[in-house]
Amino acid sequence: MATFISLLNFTEQGIATIKDSPKRLQQARDSLEPMGIAISRFYLTMGEYDAVAIIDAPDAVTAAKALLAIGSQGNISSTTLTAFEEDEYREIIGSLG
Q: How far, in Å, are 65, 86, 89 from residue 94 at the CA level?
């Protein structure tokens, strides 16, 4: 499994229908599950981004398809980062010549 951190902002449409946001989050969870994707953590945030989602997916291609599908609904825009856990980080750094 690969981990991704998605930094989310509500679009004008998304903020206009903000009361539906919890329902949309659950719909996203439900639609991603058959793809082998889980939103393992979700945070409402204050600052540059409106929310942060920690996503576990089989691979980057599957994650990209899912995020594009969710984004195409018009309620959020996202910036997504690939995340490496500490043991992966140590392995990457340890392999440097």
A: 32, 12, 8
The domain that contains 34 carries what CATH number? 3.30.70.920
Distance CA 42, CA 96 (A): 34
Backbone angles phi, psi at 4, to 5 degrees: -130, 145
Q: Give the Å distances, CA to CA, from 75 to 12, 18, 51, 82, 87.
A: 7, 9, 12, 22, 35
Q: Give the model's pLDDT for residue 25.
A: 97
pLDDT digits (tens, 9 = 90+) for 38-91: 999 999 999 999 999 999 999 999 999 999 999 999 999 999 999 999 999 999
Look at the chain and report how many structural domains it folds into: 1
**Domain boundaries, position 90:** 2-94
Residues 6 or more apart whose CB falls under 8 angstroms from that of 26 comprise none
